[in-house]
Structure formats: structure tokens, C-alpha cells
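Consider the following input, taken from an annotated entry for DUF7880 domain-containing protein (Gonium pectorale).
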Amino acid sequence: MSTPCRPPPTLSLETYVPLVLEARALLSQAKALAAKDVGAARELLRQGPYNGLRDNIRAIGEYAARDGRTTEVGPLVTGFFKSLEAYDQLLLDALRERTAVDPAELDAKVQDIYTAFDRLLATVPPEILERANRVLEVTTAKAAEGTGAAEAAEPSGASAPIVDAEAADLVMLLR
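Applying the prediction step yields:
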């Protein structure tokens, strides 16, 4: 009997990338929050785009391997998870010991996560990454100010913003 393998991702790559970009963007908030409230910083890693981050990271890795964009998918994905877990462990230790997080250690762990994000996102084709950034901008505008702000940010007469708005709605549902 052979070892069961994970089924391929069922959604398009464009679905996963905006959520990963959003998680990367929230990392600076988590870092700032860790200096004030370690428990809240850990909680931030368990909600919003971080809620399904493991699946999203794996999906991006699977697409990169399937499309031949890298031969080092395993180390990229596990490296990301290890850096995120090391950061979470740093926060947990500070929480248990009821001490503040060492700023130098915090900076190092956060930088490791940024590096891991960037290495994984480097496997995404540039056109998909560009579109994911646009979708994230629309999603952020919709979440911050309602749908009017997202429409105001769109150039008139273009069909791409409509597609981006629809993708942004999907991203908001997947959060």
C-alpha cells in the first residue's frame, strides 16, 4: 500500500496569494503589539489571514512545485513554518514567564518570517503577484471604508478593477 498524498489545491493560485500578502503586511502590527501585549500578539497570529495561513503557504508551494518554478519547495514551506513557530514560541515563553520580549530577539524572529515570506512569494509568477497586490488593495479599501472607497480607487472604464473587486470579495470570505 502506498503512502497517501495530499490532493492538489482546488482553488487557483490567485486565491491564495492575497491572503499570504495580507498576513505578511500584518506582521508589522504583530511586532508592534508584541512590545506592548504578548498575548494579543499571539492572538493576532490566529485570526484573519493567519487563520488559514498554513493551507495557503502549502498551496503556493504545491503550485510552485507543480509548475516547476522551484525544486526546493519542501525547505521553503517548512522553513516558513519553522520561522513562524519560532516567533510564536518566543511570544509564548514571554507570556509564561510574564516578561517582556527581548527587542533584539523579536526583531530577529520577525526578520526571519519576512525572509521566509519573501522566498516563498518569489516563486509566484510576477503577473499573479501584481494582481494579488491589486486585489489586496481593493480588499483593504472595502474593509476600511466600505465599497465606496474601493470603487473610488478604481480607474473608470477598466474591466480589471471589476474582476479585482470580485476577487477581493472572495478574499474577504476566505479570511
